[in-house]
């Protein structure tokens, strides 16, 4: 009886942490959806999207899942640096130290995952760089954050296109691409993180605010995929405008930036609304995944490295692994594993490790600061 009582108390305390004051269940839900969206993009063979054929609808995860992940990174930064009232002074300075240390850890984990040699474009190095780029913006008002995000989304596709057109030939260039995570070019992807930072700086989980955000996101999706995407089709063979205006997944065009950015905003807002209802308990397993996204994402790639067929050509490796139909086994294992870990242990193992490293590094830095000396 004592053991059972102790287990019950442990589970209750872990649930209190997951659903406690200071957490945003809608953000965890959106992160969980982003993780599973990336699972689907990696593990499912998808056909070009066509509204008339439901079997092609899985193509919606391509590109949009990783953009949602990047947008949520900005929301998370806002939540840990004061929410609607940004930190200032010494508190902000040390928050920047902790964020920098977390970024370094994420970059290292990303590089280690790249070394597994799975046919996946690992997002974590770019994710880490985006954290560092956001450091000067932590006290910028949300209206300006949204304005900057919008400006980047319509200008940086030209820069990305020019850099890509110059080519990445040679070992040195390929190494730089790898180290910078250029498959998710930070010049443009900063727009998603900055938009997320703006979302986190407003009371986005309030029903009216969430409805406004969802409406704005839907409007941006229509503009990006409808108007700008249609404009791109006017220059299908044009090496500049056809590429820069594109709304295709992973095109890094203006249409994709505006459209997929809008989708990310709408999903975050809708998840915030959903988690204001009892449904938040029904989706608890997905929220558990969203509470440890780095662990879930990394575990998927480690499992892939262990289970994948013998090495061969890039495309055949991907096709051979997808032929094993790994999506549902890995998805179910992730749901069950993250839920049990959340209820019995708490914070995800990689999340705990990074928090410890950042905390130790912060303590070491603070011990040499003038404030600490006083």
TrEMBL record:
Record domain DUF418: where: 228-354
Positions of the Heparan-alpha-glucosaminide N-acetyltransferase catalytic domain: 25-210
Keyword vocabulary terms for this entry: Membrane, Transmembrane, Transmembrane helix
Lineage: Bacteria, Bacillati, Actinomycetota, Actinomycetes, Micrococcales
Superkingdom assignment: Bacteria
Protein name per its UniProtKB record: DUF1624 domain-containing protein
Transmembrane segments: 93-114, 120-138, 145-166, 186-204, 211-237, 257-276, 288-307, 327-346
Stored Pfam families: DUF418, HGSNAT_cat
Organism of provenance: Microbacterium stercoris
């Amino acid at each position: 009886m004592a053991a059972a009582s102790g287990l019950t108390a442990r589970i209750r305390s872990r649930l209190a942490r997951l659903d406690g004051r200071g957490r945003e269940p809608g953000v965890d839900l959106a992160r969980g959806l982003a993780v599973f969206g990336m699972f689907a993009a990696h593990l499912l063979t998808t056909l070009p999207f066509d509204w008339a054929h439901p079997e092609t609808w899985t193509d919606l995860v391509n590109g949009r899942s990783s953009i949602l992940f990047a947008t949520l990174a900005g929301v998370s930064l806002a939540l840990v640096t004061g929410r609607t009232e940004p930190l200032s002074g010494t508190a902000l300075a040390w928050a920047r130290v902790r964020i920098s240390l977390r970024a370094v850890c994420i970059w290292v984990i990303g590089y280690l995952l790249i070394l597994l040699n799975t046919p996946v474009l690992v997002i974590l190095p770019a994710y880490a760089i985006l954290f560092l780029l956001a450091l000067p913006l932590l006290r910028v008002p949300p209206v300006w954050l949204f304005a900057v995000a919008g400006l980047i989304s319509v200008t940086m596709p030209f820069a990305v296109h020019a850099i890509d057109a110059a080519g990445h030939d040679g070992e040195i260039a390929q190494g730089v691409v790898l180290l910078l995570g250029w498959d998710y070019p930070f010049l443009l992807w900063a727009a998603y993180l900055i938009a997320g930072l703006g979302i986190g700086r407003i009371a986005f989980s309030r029903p009216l605010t969430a409805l406004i955000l969802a409406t704005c996101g839907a409007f941006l999706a229509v503009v990006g995929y409808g108007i700008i995407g249609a404009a791109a089709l006017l220059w299908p063979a044009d090496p500049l405008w056809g590429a820069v205006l594109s709304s295709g997944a992973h095109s890094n065009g203006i249409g994709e930036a505006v459209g997929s950015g809008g989708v990310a905003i709408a999903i975050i807002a809708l998840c915030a609304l959903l988690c204001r209802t009892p449904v938040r308990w029904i989706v608890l397993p997905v929220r558990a995944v969203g509470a440890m996204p780095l662990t879930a994402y990394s575990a998927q790639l480690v499992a892939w490295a262990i289970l994948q067929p013998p090495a061969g050509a890039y495309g055949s490796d991907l096709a051979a692994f997808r032929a094993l139909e790994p999506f549902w086994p890995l998805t179910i294992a992730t749901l069950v594993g993250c839920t049990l870990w959340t209820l019995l242990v708490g914070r995800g193992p990689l999340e705990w490790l990074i928090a410890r490293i950042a905390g130790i590094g912060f303590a070491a830095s603070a011990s040499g600061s003038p404030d600490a000396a006083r």
